[in-house]
Amino acid sequence: MLTPFVLACLSYALMLVAFYNPRKRSFHIPVMLATILFDVAMPVFLYTHRRWWHRLIDQEDIFSFGVWMHFGLLITLYALEAAQIWSARKILAGDPSARATHHHQARALLMVRALVLITGGIMADPT
Fold first, then answer.
1. Looking at the domain assignment, is residue 47 inside a domain?
2. CB 67 within 8 A of CB 123
3. Model's pTM, two decimal places?
């Protein structure tokens, strides 16, 4: 069954394929945009389909280090994705100096997204 964690792992694998094929813009750009949209939509899905109040408030999981680490990594992920969009727009506008920045941000984004997946997988509630 395709759980949110499995879907996130599949989107990460697709993101890796797009990372290693940046010259194929017709593939690279849509995949990266879809991945960013997936990352933005996942918390909305989890908020509407999971018993978050029971888990975070009633079971007092809100005070755990794992939840706050995951939240901090999500904020970092969103900041890196915004920076990626900004540098990609500069590349598309013809600024060759933005390529190095975009590539370094992409490496950081891959690491942070992997950590988000790991922490999310550890905290995932199978119900």
1. no
2. yes
3. 0.90
